[in-house]
Amino acid sequence: MMGRQHAPAQLFYDFDLERHVPANHMLREIDLFLDGDSLRDTLRPFYSHLGRPSIDPELIIRMLVIGYVMGIRSERRLCDEVHLNLAYRWFCRLGLEGKVPDHSTFSRYRHGKFRESDLLRQVFEATVERCLKEDLVSGEGFAVDASLISADANKVRSIAAEDWSPEVARETGNRAAREYLETLDDAAFGAASPSQPKFVAKSDPAAQWTRAEESRPYFAYATNYLIDTKSSVIMDVEATRAIQQAEVGASRTMLDRTEKRFGIRPDWLAADTAYGNAENLGWLVEKRSIIPFIPVIDKSERTDGTFSRSDFEWDEANDQYICPEGHALKQFRRNYSDPNRGQDTGGRKKYRCLKATCQACPSKEICCPKADARYVTREPHEEAREFARECRKTKAYKVSRDKRKKVEMLFAHLKRILGLTRLRLRGPNGAKDEFLLAAIAQNLRKLAKLRPQCALQGAGA
């Protein structure tokens, strides 16, 4: 006989929400690593001791964590999911009858107390501290890279760069335009490069008109990750415009901030060629004593069959180059009466050979066939560049190349699993908030995956 489902008509129910959340649910494991008391301690100075109680800020943070961990991009949908899903209600401490906040609450907290207290940065650093406590960070080697994320801006509503100015931004009057004006002197968003993009989005002027390989141009921000290569823990994250100078500057900011906040300075740093300019290598080697496993940006090699700069031997004691025929190339060949002339200014140096020597040299046709004499330039921080070239010949460099791929894996996880392919929030602050929340989610997922048993044992003790 065919059965029929009947809803039992009971007046009272004995329902335990705790028992209905599976023991291996990801949120149950993440809950062990999220401390709500520290959130309230951080925000307490920003609340008055008078008035009606506000919505618990821990509830807002827990809901945002659910959204980014589970890839729920819409805050309206997030409120619906938390209302219906028992595991989400348990994680947010709502019980069966707790009221879910309206989606507009997120904006009020985001633009108010969260940014005033820099709460999201503190939550992110708390996850890094927990990773340190769980021995997921070695501090020996770091890797850095950047990835482009589409901004919430449309080409149709953009204007040409020559028609854009701070006055136009002030007339626009939206929040993203105000944040753009506030960050014009910030290297991450305005001052890293004097060049202007082809188009500017009026809805989000700080977004960069750019393109990735084999794609159409679009407005984007760059999320920069500094990771520890032991377990791919994100040590720091920074939002910048999608330009190389800003990304290189972000790597220094993250290294300095990690050393200041956690007292960790890596022995070596792995990165791609975009970070291999002379200034950055000089900063790493000379100022921070970090081994750069980074390909050097070098355009000195010739392809026409003539001698390249690498064929000339550097004589540091005499400040000169020695050509393959044994002749000296010098920067200066006389003493100046003015002591200020001939001093090292830190720029590019040019070392020349005597014209008479080159004219009589048997190798002139494969050295300087179209010039009277050969000269060789020496870039700033050339010692650091040479050190980076020597590092590339080691076995450790090959190992670092494999470990650097972990950054790319995190970016793939960010876009394919967490669904962060396009930003919802606008402006520099909106990009910072989204990238911080995504990094928090990835670190929490890492803790839940690698250290669930340790956390359970610690909670039981």
UniProtKB/TrEMBL annotation:
<dbReference type="Pfam" id="PF13751">
    <property type="entry name" value="DDE_Tnp_1_6"/>
</dbReference>
<protein>
    <submittedName>
        <fullName>IS1182 family transposase</fullName>
    </submittedName>
</protein>
<feature type="domain" description="Transposase DDE">
    <location>
        <begin position="322"/>
        <end position="448"/>
    </location>
</feature>
<dbReference type="InterPro" id="IPR008490">
    <property type="entry name" value="Transposase_InsH_N"/>
</dbReference>
<dbReference type="InterPro" id="IPR025668">
    <property type="entry name" value="Tnp_DDE_dom"/>
</dbReference>
<feature type="domain" description="Transposase InsH N-terminal">
    <location>
        <begin position="16"/>
        <end position="111"/>
    </location>
</feature>
<dbReference type="InterPro" id="IPR047629">
    <property type="entry name" value="IS1182_transpos"/>
</dbReference>
<dbReference type="Pfam" id="PF05598">
    <property type="entry name" value="DUF772"/>
</dbReference>
